[in-house]
Amino acid sequence: MMQITSTVSPHNLHKFQAIRCPSFTFRCHQHQQASSSSSSLKQPPSQTASTRLHLANLDKLLETQKPLVQHHQPINNNNNNNNNNNINDQKKGRTFLEGLNLGRLWPEIKPTDEMSPRHLKNLQRLLSKTAEYSPRNILGSRWREYHGSDDWKGMLDPLDENLRREVVRYGEFVQAAYQAFHSDPAMSPEQPPHPRHVSLPDRSYRVTKSLYATSSIGMPKWVDDVAPDLGWMTQRSSWVGYVAVCDDRREIARMGRRDIVISLRGTSTCLEWAENLRAHLVDMPDHDSKSRTQGKPKVECGFMSLYKTRGAHVPSLAESVVEEVRRLIQVYRGEELSITVTGHSLGATLALLVADEISSCDEEAPPVAVFSFGGPRVGNKAFGERLRWKKVKVLRIVNSQDVITRVPGMLVSEELEQKMRKVGGGVLEDRTPLAYSHVGAELVVDTKMSPYLKPDADMACCHDLEAYLHLVDGFLASNCPFRSNAKRSLARLMQDQSSNVKKLYISKAKALTVNLTRHPSFSISNCLPSPS
């Protein structure tokens, strides 16, 4: 049991109220009032004895917790016996100090490499091959709120529990897109693509359409001559995602509507990388002058190229996704529908272009929402205004340590761009990359919040999709520590990001003889950080 020296002042107890974690401050206040009322019934002890009594009670409560983060080294105290007299009720601590990290209160207390049997059991659960989630709550009549009808106001910080699950669920649809692509990345330049199997994480959905993206970049003749030797890395068209629809009646009832999902993976081929580097802005080809935007909506040239270019044997991404959405709207006309577009990295940028077009592809188009992970900037401010005018709701999940989310225009902040617009008479030249702007609401997570990842995790880890889902699963609020009951499996992180996981957990995983080799059911979520 942790002990504190008698030199700690009773006023240190007020530090618990400084942690602004939801519901925590109130509990601490209740405990303080209870302590005050009970002490008034008897002779007040000395200051040193009172301090020992309070800290002993806190130790008693902390001992009942099951933290996944760390244990603390005991500090020598010559009066240890006085701190062991009042340990009776272990159940109160489960709610009173849930999720508390004493390292934030007393920095001098260092974590130890020793883990109790309870810690090892929890770690073994997190290293299991399947994540353990609580039952899904019924969204019912509130589904529009969770789909962004009010831009997720009041739901992001602290993070609503139902929204957390929805965000993770849509992220897993993107993982399925990565897995399907990496299992068979090649496409024949002479023949139409063959049917592709997608292993969906949610069996209540079924895939209805495969989606392809094609690059328009002209390759030198010598590259075409040696293309057969380079394989799929030089192919112009690549499988980029899929359309799926919920077909399970119970899941439709739980969600409050039939959901159509469009899932898009991130950068994975050389030509996609090359398109990412084409960072100059181009006009939207079908801008509606009635959209009331200030200036012309523009987007990054490379993203528009991948979205609009037709392949030799496949339609463009724009053509295929609009055709399929129109078909599904016709099939399920009269039902309550929603369209959710989700993507990571490059897929996050294409998701915005898809959402922009499908939101107006039918007179009775259902509500459209975008859940994007680690997405760079896509267009200028007028493009964002265009999406808002079309009532497209966008939730950007952003790791504050992920530099990809700050490009193009990474060297100039949005605040500086706004100042430059004012200095220039309210107009910033559209052809400069400084005109890029983000759109939508933000859910900001941070690699440094995870007790399992190193605070100096590298760029690949900060941009990795599985790392994103791990951070979302553990996020409570920006002013709270990682939630202690996060249940997402750690094995997925250790498979691909072992160099970024703290050695303590790597060593314990090996000690537990947990098999961390890649399992066929694991989604391949890795995507090398795109330069734009």
From TrEMBL:
Keywords: Chloroplast, Hydrolase, Lipid degradation, Lipid metabolism, Plastid, Transit peptide. Coiled coil: none annotated. GO terms for cellular component: chloroplast. Its main location: plastid. Residues 75-88 have a biased composition (Low complexity). It is found in: Plastid, Chloroplast. Residues 72-91 are annotated as: Disordered. GO terms for biological process: lipid catabolic process. Residues 261-410 form the Fungal lipase-type domain. GO terms for molecular function: galactolipase activity; phospholipase A1 activity. Belongs to the AB hydrolase superfamily. Lipase family. This is Fungal lipase-type domain-containing protein.
